[in-house]
């Protein structure tokens, strides 16, 4: 089901880690999967805990703040999607990555519509999950440090996940929030496309380049042209930085 990083590659991978300590909750009813993920994330220096069902997850979430939640869909006492909807209805902004063996498009759409920040279908490589958790963790920390942005007539609250323009609410998708998080973390600097791709999609290649350009255009349409600035040949910057 999972593909762990080969032993010989682990020291190099650990040296390459760039993340701060992130508090991660892994919710999965498969004890073997949960154990593999907990060990892998612990090696990355994160503070991790696990839950096998919704009841344990609820107790874990009540015990202290979290930076990332890794959430399986099929749980013994209910649906992970229902838990996600409840969290978002309560304005809980902790990034959530949904993992499921059912990775068809309809399930992905359902998870994203419920408020998921990322989606990973099983089977998956543990190295990819680790990279995605690092990206979500960095965005979480940066959003807490720079919670509210005001550019012209647009206001963006990164913590509450609320955006307005002309004092009217604007709907922002999870991917669009992720792009804003990546730029807000480096306000005052141009952010390379490869950096945004890595933080939003978990890899820095060109596979999702077209998607990035489409989402940037949508953000500008929703919040105004001056919200994001394109620096030709380099990347994007937030506002007039």
Brief write-up:
The protein is α/β, with parallel strands linked by helices and 241 residues long. It has helices at 10-16, 31-43, 54-62, 80-89, 105-114, 126-145, 174-184, 193-201, 209-223; strands at residues 2-3, 23-27, 47-51, 68-72, 74-75, 78-79, 96-100, 118-121, 124-125, 148-151, 154-157, 162-165, 168-170, 191-192, 228-231, 235-238. A hairpin with a 2-residue loop joins strand 12 (162-165) and strand 13 (168-170).
Explained architecture:
The chain is of the alpha/beta class and 241 residues long. It has two domains: 2-142, Response regulator (Rossmann fold); 146-238, Winged helix-like DNA-binding domain superfamily/Winged helix DNA-binding domain (Arc Repressor Mutant, subunit A), CATH 1.10.10. The chain has helices at 10-16, 31-43, 54-62, 80-89, 105-114, 126-145, 174-184, 193-201, 209-223; strands spanning 2-3, 23-27, 47-51, 68-72, 74-75, 78-79, 96-100, 118-121, 124-125, 148-151, 154-157, 162-165, 168-170, 191-192, 228-231, 235-238. Strands 3-2-4-7-8 form a five-stranded parallel β-sheet, sandwiched between helices. Strand 10 (148-151) and strand 11 (154-157) form a beta hairpin. Helix 6 (126-145) packs across helix 7 and helix 7 (174-184) packs across helix 8.
């Amino acid at each position: 089901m999972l593909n762990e990083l080969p032993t010989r590659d682990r020291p190099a991978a650990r040296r390459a880690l760039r993340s701060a300590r992130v508090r991660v909750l892994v919710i999965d009813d498969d004890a073997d999967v949960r154990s593999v993920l907990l060990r892998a994330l612990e090696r990355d220096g994160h503070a991790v805990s696990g839950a096998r069902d919704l009841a344990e997850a609820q107790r874990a979430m009540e015990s202290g703040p979290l930076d990332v939640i890794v959430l399986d869909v099929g749980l013994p006492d209910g649906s992970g999607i229902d838990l996600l909807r409840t969290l978002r209805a309560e304005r809980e902004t902790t990034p959530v990555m949904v993992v499921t063996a059912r990775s068809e498009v309809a399930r992905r759409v359902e998870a994203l519509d419920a408020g998921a920040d990322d989606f990973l279908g099983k089977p998956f490589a543990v190295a990819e999950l680790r990279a995605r958790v690092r990206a979500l963790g960095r965005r979480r920390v940066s959003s807490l440090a720079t919670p509210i942005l005001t550019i012209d007539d647009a206001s963006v609250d990164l913590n509450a996940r609320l955006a307005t323009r002309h004092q009217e609410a604007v709907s922002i998708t999870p991917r669009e929030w992720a792009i804003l998080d990546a730029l807000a973390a480096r306000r005052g600097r141009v952010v390379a496309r490869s950096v945004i791709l890595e933080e939003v999609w978990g890899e820095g290649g060109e596979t999702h380049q077209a998607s990035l350009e489409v989402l940037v255009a949508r953000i500008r349409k929703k919040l105004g042209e001056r919200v994001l600035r394109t620096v030709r040949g380099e990347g994007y910057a937030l506002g007039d930085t």
